[in-house]
């Protein structure tokens, strides 16, 4: 099992957005923090399965310090998602 970090962002005029720095383009959203985390987890698991099915290697997980050092993530809330690699 491999653990990746997701970042939840909030714009007061919209839902909570979710991104995964190790998977550019894998994004999701939710009305609440809990929903954003659940939807983000589902999005990442689907994205990873698609990559594995295509024979692509999953990226090595970045550490928390590296992710939070990026200015776009500084105000975000992080959470982790475990991916089963077959």
Helicity, as a percent range: 25-40%
| SSE arrangement, N to C | EEEHHE
Task: Tell me the overall shape.
Answer: globular
Major beta sheet summary: 4 strands, antiparallel
Tally of individual helices = 2
How many structurally independent domains? 1
Which structural class is indicated by helix and strand composition? alpha+beta
Name of the CATH first level: Alpha Beta
CATH-defined fold name: Double Stranded RNA Binding Domain
What is the strand arrangement across the widest sheet?
3-2-1-4
Average the pLDDT over all residues and give the rounded result.
Answer: 93
**Low-confidence region ranges:** none
Compute the number of strand runs: 4
Rg calculated over all Cα atoms: 13 Å
Instruction: Tell me the CATH architecture.
Output: 2-Layer Sandwich
Task: Please indicate the percent range of residues in DSSP E strands (runs of 2 or more).
Answer: 25-35%
Distance between the termini: 9 Å
């Amino acid at each position: 099992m491999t653990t990746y970090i997701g970042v939840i962002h909030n714009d007061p005029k919209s839902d909570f957005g979710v991104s995964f720095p190790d998977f550019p383009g894998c994004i999701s959203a939710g009305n609440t923090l809990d929903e954003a985390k659940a939807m983000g987890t589902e999005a990442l698991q689907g994205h990873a399965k698609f990559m594995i099915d295509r024979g692509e290697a999953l990226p090595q997980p970045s550490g928390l310090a590296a992710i939070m050092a990026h200015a776009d993530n500084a105000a975000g809330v992080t959470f982790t998602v475990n991916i089963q690699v077959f």
